[in-house]
Write a structure and sequence with these properties.
The complex is a heterodimer of chains A (304) and B (258).
Chain A (H helix, E strand, L loop, with lengths): L8 H6 L6 H17 L2 H18 L1 H4 L31 H37 L1 H16 L2 H12 L3 H28 L2 H8 L4 H37 L11 H8 L7 H29 L6
Helix pairs in contact in A: 2-12, 3-5, 3-12, 5-6, 5-8, 5-10, 6-8, 7-8, 8-10, 10-11, 10-12, 11-12
Chain B lengths: L3 E10 L6 E11 L4 E5 L6 H9 L6 E6 L2 E2 L5 H7 E4 L13 H11 L5 H11 L16 H13 L5 E5 L7 H18 L2 E5 L3 H7 L2 E6 L2 E7 H5 L6 H9 L9 H4 L1
Parallel strand pairs in B: 3-8, 3-9, 6-7, 7-8
Antiparallel strand pairs in B: 1-2, 1-4, 4-5, 9-10
Helix pairs in contact in B: 3-4, 4-5
Classes of the chains: A mainly alpha (304), B alpha/beta (258).
Chain lengths: 304, 258
């Protein structure tokens, strides 16, 4: 039995008499993490994403072959002990290409998310909070971007800016922010009429403070969930651009481009198209499950 | 001279052909230390009057003056330090993602008050909540506790006037009397002036020395409590309202039973 003067970690994290802001934050993190880990699907998502990140960071050590070296003597080999996931039409090891491709996929997905989230939030929250003409102008601009098929618009931008991953990222970001802006606007509209916003205004809070401290925390969870759900779509759009020669350029092992290239050999050599396709499927699924778990973690109304 | 002086407030909401007049020529005065009631059925505009005084609506015409300063001429932050508001629904008036300490600290940060930690503790004490509530989230509190936090937030800037928008109607009956008595104690202790909106004549009778009866955006009649107790009611609408409150017993305010 431990003495009464020292508090165990468990007591510190579950007691009702909270004595500091740090303890309140620790408690919230602890119970949020607990509820996150009580959902096996969310944990699956997290594990896959962590594995993907490890794979991307340590790609040269994990890969068994050089992803770019061709070996025409061993083209279209089925999965074996030497080539775990088989080889493609140039005899390159598919496993090594998938491992290195995780870098490109993560790079595109992260960069697009980092660009899209602030733009969508700022435009959506501004439109929703101020209403009137601000709302009308900003939402019509959003509608214009939304009315283009996203792949076509990305194509046009990639064609104008030239092929390459960076330009693909810009092109995808330009088409991915409108849904985020709409979501942020909808959340803002429902929050704006709340009494706690009125109370903040009666306290003397100005618009920037209300947007930053009161409305943003309400918008963040749904935007985070939406973006994780979008990540699969971002990967697919990047793949589509790669297939059309406007995204990742040929030798680079981008998963979507690998799938597109493998299309021609699908009947005889199923692994060429299936393996990168499976990689996209698993990672997209993981992002979705992780997004759902994250929402529970970010929303104190649902924890404990 | 009265502390709050409101004359001829008109308010329209909506634009163009859908514009509707919500308030029509509202005028009344409230003396310092008084509790002034606003009664009426829902939609009569009584809460809207409070929102105009609090500055949540700005496009009214007429004049609202507190302590000699009119709303137009007053500094916005200085106005906030004089007039604070407590809302009807304690579940909607506290930000779900802010801790109680954040909720109470925010007005102090906006107005650049020093000594924030001590002031928060003081405000919690005033409303009868202990320090253990400081680092909780609103969802960990009961309705009555939340309303106490909302009152503490209104008090933390040391205002002279508290606008109370049906502050007990969302609460359990057992908690209502507690909160009303808290308001009474605070009024004595801090020399506050209240404008209280309610549809409950028992609450008005318990709290107010005078009140106005509102219907369709107009003040029908201003009554003192003595006049109400003596049954000296002139407007037919007030009479109907009194009768509609059923077997309400003028001689027995709720505090007499509790």
């Amino acid at each position: 039995m431990s003495g009464t003067e020292t508090m165990t970690w468990r007591e510190y994290l579950s007691t009702d008499t909270i004595t500091s802001g740090r303890q309140a934050t620790a408690q919230r993190l602890y119970w949020g993490t607990r509820s996150f880990f009580s959902s096996p699907l969310a944990v699956f998502g997290l594990v896959v994403i962590l594995l993907l990140a490890i794979m991307a960071i340590f790609a040269p050590w994990i890969a068994t072959h050089d992803p770019l070296v061709q070996n025409l003597a061993r083209d279209l080999e089925p999965p074996s002990a030497q080539n775990w996931l088989g080889t493609d039409e140039f005899g390159r090891d598919i496993f090594s290409r998938i491992v290195h491709g995780s870098r490109i996929s993560l790079y595109i997905v992260m960069l697009v998310s980092v660009i899209v989230a602030p733009i969508g939030l700022v435009i959506g929250m501004t439109a929703g909070y101020f209403g009137g003409w601000t709302d009308r102008v900003l939402m019509r601009i959003t509608d214009i971007f939304l009315s283009f098929p996203s792949l076509i618009l990305a194509l046009a931008f990639a064609a104008a800016l030239g092929p390459g991953i960076e330009n693909a990222v810009i092109a995808i970001a330009l088409t991915a922010w409108p849904p985020i802006a709409r979501l942020a606007r909808a959340e803002t509209l429902t929050t704006r009429a709340a009494d706690y916003i009125a109370a903040a205004r009666v306290s003397g809070a100005g618009a920037p403070r209300i947007l930053w401290r009161h409305i943003l925390p309400i918008c963040i969870p749904s935007v985070v969930v939406r973006i994780t759900l979008n990540m699969a779509g971002i990967m697919l759009t990047a793949a589509g651009l790669g297939f059309l020669g406007l995204g990742a350029q040929p030798p680079s092992p981008e998963w979507g481009a690998m799938t597109s290239a493998g299309r021609r050999f699908m009947i005889d050599s199923w692994w060429v198209v299936t393996m990168p396709g499976m990689a996209i499927l698993i990672v997209a699924l993981a992002f979705n499950l992780f997004g759902d778990g994250l929402r529970d973690l970010l929303d104190p109304r649902q924890s404990r | 001279m009265s502390l709050i002086s409101i004359s001829d407030i008109d308010l329209h909401l909506g634009a163009g052909t859908r514009s509707r007049q919500i308030l029509d020529g509202i005028s009344f005065d409230v003396d310092e230390g008084q509790t002034f009631g606003l009664v009426g059925e829902s939609g009569s505009g009584k809460s809207t009057v409070l929102r105009c005084i609090a500055g949540l609506y700005r496009h009214w015409t007429g004049s609202i003056a507190v302590d000699g300063d009119t709303f137009e001429s007053a500094d916005r932050l200085a106005w906030c330090r004089k007039v604070q508001m407590v809302f009807q629904d304690p579940y909607g008036s506290l930000h779900p993602k802010h801790r109680i300490s954040d909720i109470l600290a925010e007005p102090l940060q906006i107005h650049r008050f020093g000594d924030i930690d001590r002031r928060i503790g003081e405000a919690l004490e005033q409303v009868g909540l202990g320090g253990q509530f400081r680092y909780r989230y609103p969802h960990q509190l009961s309705g009555g506790q939340r309303q106490r936090v909302a009152i503490a937030r209104a008090l933390v800037l040391r205002p002279r006037i508290l606008l109370l928008d049906e502050p007990t109607s969302a609460l359990d009956v057992s908690i209502q009397a507690e909160i009303l008595n808290l308001f009474k104690d605070l009024r004595e202790e801090l020399n506050l002036t209240y404008v209280l909106v309610s549809h409950d004549l028992a609450v008005i009778d318990h709290m107010c020395s005078a009140f106005a009866v509102m219907q369709a955006g107009k003040i029908v009649e201003v009554l003192t409590r003595d006049a109400l107790d003596a049954g000296q009611v002139s407007a037919p609408y007030t009479r109907a309202l009194l009768e509609a409150s059923g077997h309400y017993d003028l001689a027995a305010p709720p505090s007499a039973q509790s």
